[in-house]
Structures are given as structure tokens and as C-alpha cells.
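Request: Show me your protein:
***
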Amino acid sequence: MKYGIVVGLWMVALGACQVAALPQVADVRKPVSTSELLDPGALTVMTRVLSPGRNLERILEAPTAAELPARAAEVFGALRQEDVSTRVRRLADEIQYARPHLIGLQQVAQVRLQSPGDAIFGGTRPALTVYLDVLPVLLGELEARGLHYREVARVRNADEEVPLLTSAGPTFDDVRLTDFDIILARADVEVSGVRGGNYLAHRKVSRPGLEPVELRRGWASVAATVEGRKYRFVSTHLEPAPDDEGLRVQLAQAEELIRALRGESLPVVLVGDFNTPANLGLMGAPTYRELLLAGYVDVWTRRPGSALGAGADMPLELPSLAERLNLVLVRNPVAPGLRRVGPVQAYGVGGAPKSQAGVVARLRM
């Protein structure tokens, strides 16, 4: 609680003296025609959470080591019930409509099994049999529709294996859950300069009788050439901040990312699940404010009027995005004068749950 109070006081004081330090951006409010955004030179990007829920965190939150296998069985049972095909088709629909040049996917989960398991007895042999891997299913669905995308970058985040209760005997398997952030590029997009990594700042989960588990998050990036222009495209997933500890980690991760991209000479397009509300204004979420102070522009705030162009036939159910956690941020190289961003066309995808939301943005910068 003390940390929250300190952050609040810091925000008030900082707001009084640093509003003038926010990056100057030309406010483009002229009417935008669909043809202007669809002409060569416009960039279309998507950010999307691929796998729902907090499966690994839910398992690790078991209060004791003895309860861990039963908690894993509960989560694994829910995974069995997931309609992966419907989820993949939905995402493929969104991609087919938008045809983005670049896609940042967060929470791309892979589930592997080992039967019988050895973790319950202290064994360390890793589970290798793939039970669930959504990305190949998605790429196959896109290919079947004549949409040619490929994976161009990934970062592995949390990777944990736990015992899984399979019968009242009791008998046990092992289940291994691995979390990735992945970048997809359209076939006509050239990429190079792949970079990324895990944040030094991360949350640890400790429980009686078990070793602490480090829940790592990270970022991935590529230099991408689109319609003759080159960009640094970055995808990330920051730590949720339901409490002071989460906020501390999230702010530290954002600062690491800002530093890593500070010397980038290319225009930066930064997308992802930032877990920081962007609807609270400059005096609201501290992480969102830090990104703005670092020179990034939230393209959602640069939409001139409607989120969709006149006459657009959008076949998807758009979420209201009452709380925007998934963002598309851009930053031009530091140069004298105003940094122009626009025109912009942006809309939400992914359905109502904010945990599965995403954004598509078509813009010029």
C-alpha cells in the first residue's frame, strides 16, 4: 500500500512539472479517405493475445506442494475443454479481414506431457510430447485461406513443468507449460535484425515446500521493410499490475524496454499487451505515462473520428475496449520539429474479454 501511495504522490508532482515534456505530435484531424490509407506506403499491424487465461499462474498459486498436482489436473481439464479450432478460426477471420503486414502475438502457449511423470519424485527429465501448440494450427488455417504468413521472431518466457494428478491411485504425469511472444510477418515483408530477450525484472512465486518459480516476460523485435520503408517492429507482454508488487515489476520492465530501444534509428512500432490502462489519462496509469514521456504515441488517440472508414463492411463483433490494455505505440526517430503520426485507422479485435483483446492499426508515420 505504501508503494501505491508513493506512486500516486509522485504522479501528481510529476504531472505538474512534466506535462510540457510530453512529445509534441502533429494532431492530424483532417478527414481520412479509405484510399489514402490503402495506398502503398501505409503500414498495417496487429497485436493479439493468442491464449486465454492465466493457466501457469493458476497452477503455481496452489497454497502447498501437496495441492499442486490436483491444481494442475484442474487447469489441464479446462484446457481439454477449450475449443481451439473455433478460437483459431476467429483469429484467422480477423487476419483475413485486416491483412496486416506484421502481427505481434502474446501468450502463445505450448503444452507438453510426460507419462508417467517423474517430477513428483524429484525427477528432472523434461516433458517433450506436444499436447497443445496453437501456432502451427493458426499458420495452417491461414495457408488454407491463401494467406501466407511466417514466424520471424520469438522469445520464450515462463517455462515450468509440474506434476499432474491423473487418477486417485494416485498416479501422476508431468505437464509442462511454456509461454512465448511471437512475431508473424506477411510473405511480402522483408525482415532482418531480429532482437529480443527476457526482462531482468520479473515476479517470483514462492510456496511452502517448493522452490521459488520465476515468471519471466520478454520482448521480440525485427527490422521490417514494408512498401519500401523500414521500421523496427516490437512485440511485448508486460507483467500484470493488480497490486503494488505487480506495478513495481511492470514499471521496471517498461523502463528496460525503453532503454533497449532508445538508440534505435528506425521508426519504432511497439505493440503488445502492456497491462496498463490507457483510458485513465496522463495522470492515470504510471506505466502508460512513462511510455508517452519516452516519446511514444498511442495511435488509438490519433484516430480521426470513426474507428472504421466510411463504407467499411466489418464482419467481426468489435469489443468496446472500455479498458485498453493492448496498445499500438509508435515513435519516430528524434528530430527537430513536430513528429507527425497519421492518418490512423484503428479498431479492436478479439471479443469482449480484455484478456483476449487486441488491436489492428493502419497508419502512416
Q: What stands out?
A: Residues 244-261 form the longest helix (18 residues). The radius of gyration is 21 Å. Residues 109 and 134 are 7 Å apart (CA to CA). Helices lie at 2-18, 34-38, 55-60, 68-81, 84-98, 134-144, 244-261, 286-293.
